[in-house]
Task: inverse folding
């Protein structure tokens, strides 16, 4: 059997040439972000205590450089994979580096204010872990091989386990870290077993070769059973990681307990990385057997959209509410996978970009409002925010309107593209668009509930809400910058949606190419 | 004069938005200066609206005039396309007028006045955008943008503690309807575009493409669009957001919320219902007419049963919108002409009534009809104003609503004599509740004097400046409705002729 598989894999002279060549230049973002981990840890050891504040700037500069390095990273001419077909260096890698690393840089920028308020001393490890997570997330999105995929997944998951439990005196934070660790390892095990089964069936863990096998054999023969089991296990791992219902149980607890910047990183970065990686895996690698996984994701998408939005309605804690909102958005994102046409892929990447900036905006406001002992996280604490901090209320409003999909924000266009893609693909997929529409109305209810609190409601206890010191009155300049970037991007990417969609389209076109470049 | 090169429609839409942004950020400037700036912007916009209308005056110009076009998100057929024909030009003039009325009357708002004027101006801009869009998705975008300022106007400046619930209900009802329209629009983009052509949601292009769809598809699409309009107008079973929203919203905001915004629903039924899906519209017209008629009668009965002046006016407004919808679904020249004329008439009288009620409220401190009475000799001028407005609203010949009602009943009679006969009952009911409203407040036994602000004078100068032009307009349009219909008629007939042809030519 193995010999027959080997016979299928034709080794050309070009492949042999490639073996000797290592395209270091294609991984600039990873060198800078991953190397930044070491730089930050070194800085943590070397710098005297009074200079520790520099660490966050070192981390920010490294991540910003990593984001900017997409401008000079090397791209192979044909858009093929590098590092012996382990890594895909293409437009999509560049697009996702900007999202994942850019948002990590912004979160680093927003953190010092939060950390000093909470009273966390070990800032060096914190930033190092954030950068490790960012590196892992980006590597996940560029993986062209299931082994890289899994290692990258574990890299950022391990960093996040620690980050979730980072608050020294908070039981909730410890619970969050532990819960995430247990459940996430369980899901990783599923994923790994699925990968193993697929390897057993197809004889390879490289995306291109698995895809090639599936394109010729589909699920025929005995191996077909293995492929189906493998596909099922991988889907479970995927559904867990993007917190699709019914694999979402961990999300609200983990999001609530984790330090808010870490929650933001998980809501934004992790989700983007996982969805993008599975865009490559499902629509690319498993594309030939789309009729097998599409019904599963179709069902998951519908349950997730309905359940996530309904569960969010009754939440009183803003972080839990945003967690359920993240669950609901996972449902919308899955539309992009199921519809599976050109618009759905570019629309999915566009939605990820939009989801990133609007969610970052909302979490940045939560960070600014949150008190030193994790107070001010209830919806009622947002009562009258407009009077105390009009700008924070304005940023929150724009972010929430965008999450609710009200034009002309980026959230509206994201939904329009995804629902449009579902309608374009026709048939039962139109049901996805209709469920998406109906649940958007539910979503509008709970997003508007926060807006109501900020603008129309009176604080329950005026005295208690008054800021204790003048400093508590306004967010630090760095956090202010993050808020500014988020709100400008939320509005700007909406008004200039055509440019962003063109960019996403260029990025998404590589999915189509996977099938053609290695096909013959 | 190459006036047409000038992006006049765009300026008319975005000038209020620019002014609103300025108001939101200008925290250091003198508040009175900002007020007069807002009024100035509203005046300029009214002038611009008249300029937009000017090509249609005095000749039988039909079709779209002016207009700008910029490529936007071509992947889903969205282009920035704005243009006006005489129907939308009249409605833009109405909106600009109401924007001016709203901002002028909103000068006395105590709480966060800058934001209030900004919300009014952006609502005005969004409504003008709705009337001017000739791209379906752009229409949808302005349609949703309308929600945001309207929501804040109700929830932040509403009059009782119930305002938040009223505002949320308003938003959810409207969103629930309009999102179906979004599905319909996206469907049109991907399904009606002929093979090989670029996705297009250009109004005229879509109008041509629709004739190629199967009747069932057309029906479903029409219903998806109707879902949005039926909530916004609103027609009978979808009106429950309206009384609360109108009762809560402050009177200056009601100039736009009750005066201009329901017109977008009626306009939508006309342009994106009757003119876009002629076959489906004809099929559903009897049902929608029945809902419209039901709303007309039910609204009138509910207005009879209310004791709160604002709620009487809210139900009256709802009732009259049903009457306007009846004219549209007659789908003939008289009915549609009458409906558009009535949109303008209703748009002048309803805000005037709400503002007059607010003027009364500032003097008496109550909106309850059973607590008021016999105020005629105390404030005779305000009473006279009420009388004129009530008479106009119940359709007295010589005042503006008569001509519109006459045309609508005529059009409705041509479509279905039974509906016309029932509609007449509604007109009688309107006379009943308006007389009840007027008598309840101004005649009859005098109320407990403790309720009343004894120092209050009769109409002040600012109130004369506000109401006299409106009353003059009411009389002018009552005496010479052909000022409007003469301009509308060629356009309406041309659209009806074209669309019937398209529907039959399939």
Result:
């Amino acid at each position: 059997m193995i010999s027959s598989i080997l016979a299928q894999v034709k080794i050309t002279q070009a492949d042999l040439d490639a073996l000797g060549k290592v395209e270091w230049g294609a991984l600039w973002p990873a060198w800078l972000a991953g190397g930044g981990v070491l730089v930050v840890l070194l800085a943590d050891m070397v710098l005297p205590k009074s200079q520790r504040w520099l660490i966050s700037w070192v981390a920010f500069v490294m991540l910003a450089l990593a984001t900017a390095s997409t401008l000079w990273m090397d791209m192979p001419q044909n858009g093929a994979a590098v590092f012996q077909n382990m890594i895909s260096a293409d437009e999509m890698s560049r697009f996702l580096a900007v999202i994942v690393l850019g948002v990590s840089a912004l979160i680093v920028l927003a953190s010092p204010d939060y950390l000093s308020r909470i009273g966390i001393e070990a800032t060096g490890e914190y930033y190092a872990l954030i950068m490790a997570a960012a590196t892992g997330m980006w590597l996940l999105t560029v993986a062209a091989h299931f082994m890289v995929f899994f290692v990258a997944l574990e890299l950022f998951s391990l960093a996040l386990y620690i980050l979730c439990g980072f608050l020294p005196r908070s039981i909730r934070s410890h619970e969050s870290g532990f819960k995430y660790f247990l459940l996430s390892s369980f899901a990783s095990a599923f994923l790994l077993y699925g990968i193993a089964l697929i390897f057993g069936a197809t004889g390879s863990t490289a995306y291109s070769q698995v895809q090639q096998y599936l394109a010729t054999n589909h699920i025929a023969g005995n191996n077909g059973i293995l492929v189906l089991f493998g596909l099922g296990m991988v889907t479970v791992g995927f559904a867990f990681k993007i917190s699709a219902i019914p694999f979402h149980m961990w999300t609200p607890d983990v999001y609530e307990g984790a330090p808010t910047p870490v929650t933001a990183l998980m809501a934004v970065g992790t989700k983007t990385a996982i969805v993008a990686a599975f865009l490559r895996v499902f629509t690319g690698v498993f594309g030939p057997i789309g009729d097998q996984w599409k019904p599963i994701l179709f069902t998951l998408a519908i349950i997730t959209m309905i359940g996530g939005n309904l569960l969010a309605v009754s939440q009183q804690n803003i972080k839990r509410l945003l967690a359920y909102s993240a669950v609901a958005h996972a449902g919308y994102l899955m539309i992009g996978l199921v519809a599976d046409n050109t618009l759905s892929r570019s629309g999915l990447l566009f939605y990820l970009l939009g989801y990133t900036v609007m969610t970052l905006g909302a979490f940045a406001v939560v960070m600014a409002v949150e008190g030193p002992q994790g107070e001010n996280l209830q919806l009622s604490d947002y009562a009258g925010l407009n009077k105390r901090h009009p700008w924070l209320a304005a940023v929150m409003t724009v972010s929430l309107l965008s999450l609710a999909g009200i034009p002309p924000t980026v959230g509206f266009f994201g939904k329009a593209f995804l629902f449009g893609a579902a309608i374009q693909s026709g048939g039962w997929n139109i049901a996805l668009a209709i469920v998406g529409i109906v649940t958007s109305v539910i979503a509008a209810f709970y997003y508007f509930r926060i807006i109501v609190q900020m603008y129309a409601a009176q604080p329950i206890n005026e005295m208690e809400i008054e800021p204790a010191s003048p400093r508590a009155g306004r967010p630090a300049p760095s956090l202010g910058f993050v808020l500014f970037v988020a709100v400008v991007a939320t509005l700007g990417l909406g008004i200039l949606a055509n440019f962003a969609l063109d960019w996403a389209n260029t990025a998404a076109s590589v999915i189509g190419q996977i099938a053609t470049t290695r096909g013959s | 004069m190459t006036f047409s090169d000038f992006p006049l429609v765009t300026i008319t839409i975005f000038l209020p938005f620019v002014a609103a942004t300025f108001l939101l950020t200008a925290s250091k400037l003198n508040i009175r200066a900002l007020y007069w700036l807002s009024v100035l912007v509203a005046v300029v916009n009214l002038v611009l609206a008249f300029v937009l209308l000017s090509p249609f005056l005095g000749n039988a110009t039909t079709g779209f005039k002016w207009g700008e076009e910029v490529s936007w998100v071509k992947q889903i057929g969205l282009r920035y396309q704005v243009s006006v024909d005489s129907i939308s030009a009249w409605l833009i003039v109405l909106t600009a007028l109401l924007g001016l009325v709203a901002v002028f009357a909103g000068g006395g708002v105590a709480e966060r006045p800058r934001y209030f004027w900004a919300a009014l101006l952006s609502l005005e801009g969004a409504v003008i955008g709705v009337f001017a869009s000739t791209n379906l998705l752009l229409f949808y975008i302005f349609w949703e943008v309308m929600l945001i300022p309207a929501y804040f106007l109700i929830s932040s400046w509403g009059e009782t503690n119930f305002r938040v619930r009223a505002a949320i209900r308003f938003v959810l009802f409207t969103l629930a309807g309009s999102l179906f329209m979004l599905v319909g629009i996206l469907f049109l983009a991907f399904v009606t575009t002929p093979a090989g052509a670029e996705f297009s949601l250009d109004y005229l292009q879509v109008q041509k493409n629709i004739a190629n769809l199967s009747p069932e598809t057309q029906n479903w699409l029409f219903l998806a669009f109707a879902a949005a309009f039926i909530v916004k107008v609103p027609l009978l079973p979808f009106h429950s957001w309206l009384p609360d929203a109108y009762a809560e919203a402050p009177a200056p905001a009601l100039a736009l919320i009750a005066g201009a915004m329901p017109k977008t629903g009626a306009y939508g039924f006309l342009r994106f219902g009757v003119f876009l899906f002629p076959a489906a519209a004809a099929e559903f017209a009897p049902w929608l007419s029945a809902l419209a008629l039901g709303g007309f009668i039910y609204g009138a009965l509910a207005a009879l049963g209310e004791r709160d002046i604002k709620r009487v006016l809210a139900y009256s407004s709802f009732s009259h919108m049903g009457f306007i919808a009846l004219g549209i679904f007659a789908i003939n020249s008289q009915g549609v002409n009458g409906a558009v004329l009535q949109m303008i008439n209703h748009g002048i009288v309803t805000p005037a009534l709400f503002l007059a009620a607010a003027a009364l409220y500032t003097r008496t401190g109550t909106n309850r009809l059973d607590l008021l009475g016999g105020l005629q000799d105390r404030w005779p001028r305000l009473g006279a104003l009420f009388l004129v407005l009530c008479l106009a609203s119940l359709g007295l010949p010589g005042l503006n609503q008569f001509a519109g009602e006459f045309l609508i009943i005529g059009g409705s009679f041509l479509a279905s004599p039974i509906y016309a006969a029932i509609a007449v009952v509604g007109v009688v009911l309107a006379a009943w509740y308006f007389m009840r409203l007027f008598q309840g407040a101004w005649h009859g036994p005098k109320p407990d004097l403790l309720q009343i602000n004894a120092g209050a004078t009769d109409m002040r100068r600012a109130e004369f400046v506000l109401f006299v032009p409106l009353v003059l307009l009411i009389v002018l349009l009552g005496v010479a409705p052909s000022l409007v219909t003469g301009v509308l008629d060629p356009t309406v007939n041309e659209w009806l002729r074209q669309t019937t042809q398209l529907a039959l030519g399939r």
Chain B touches chain A through 35 residues (CB under 8 Å). The CA atoms of residues 394 and 428 of chain B lie 8 Å apart. The beta strands of chain B are 65-71, 79-84.
